[in-house]
Amino acid sequence: MDGSAGLIGTDKSIGWRGLGLVSLLANLTAEGLSMSEPTFPLVLKGRSVIQIAVNHPFRIGILGSGQGSNFVAIADAVAAGNIPAQIAVVLSDVESAGILAHARARQLPAQFIPPGQFRTKLDEAAERAFVAALKAAQVDLVVLAGFMRVLKGDFLRAFEGRIVNIHPSLLPCFPGLQSWRQALDHGVKVAGCTVHFVDAGVDSGAIIGQTAVPVLDHDTAETLHQRIHAAEHELYPKCVAALARKEISVVGRRVIWK
After folding, report:
1. What are phi and psi of 144, to 5 degrees?
2. Cβ pair 219, 195 in contact under 8 A
């Protein structure tokens, strides 16, 4: 499908080069929507992240649990001037995580915070510690880069509308774990990745951008995952840059790119 139509184009990010803002707003008007309509819970309440950010430069906090390849892509884009922002802090729930080593090598503030007793979420003390560290760093945007903990109510409320994540599928298809394997097992011909706002559901927040990755006949779960990962490294910095430049607004579940 042609990416210039503003939908899915193979290996091209959705929203990065899609329909112009004028035509999008015209479509919204034609469907009876307006910019004053109630906004999607835990994405926006009257104001968007790009409207409430007050720091100069735009400050990003990044959370990760693994090797940090998406962090590296974002940090490189910041260093190259492609993202007009500053990485204020990098946090991990894994003491030996590669993301912390990458951050320290770049002389960025990096901190391990023990996650507590649970396997898939932060306990209350850990959640408070993460929130406190992000608030102390005065972050405008929280970027999840392979953070393997489900975020709950207090964390989401502390940064409502200001948390984004990248997921290795074309949401809403294949949420949850090992989505590339889900896609391959299901027999789809196109997989991909999605950058989305984080809400209280599982990979259910409003979609910011997507990149399609074709599934090849000889693909294994590993080869498909590798190509999706490469697409993530292109898409995520573009979406973070658009947020930092105030190029994104949200109406309902629709994320509109200027």
Report:
1. -90, 120
2. no
Distance CA 31, CA 44 (A): 20
DSSP reduced 3-state for 219: coil
**Which residues are CB-neighbours of 161 under 8 A, at least 6 positions away?**
42, 43, 44, 45, 47, 48, 49, 52, 197
Q: Which fold has domain 3-257?
A: Rossmann fold (3.40.50)
Q: Annotated catalytic, 218?
A: no
- What are the DSSP calls for 224-250, one per residue? HHHHHHHHHHHHHHHHHHHHHTT-EEE
pLDDT digits (tens, 9 = 90+) for 200-226: 999 999 999 999 999 999 999 999 999
Report the C-alpha gap between 142 and 59 in whole angstroms.
9
What DSSP letter does each residue of 75-113 carry, written as one string? Answer: HHHHHTTSS-EEEEEEEESSTT-HHHHHHHHTT--EEE-
Tokens of 177: 């774990």
Dist CA 124 CA 207 (whole Å): 28
Q: What is the pTM of this model?
A: 0.80
Residue type for position 188: V
Catalytic residue among 167, 186, 218, 229: 167
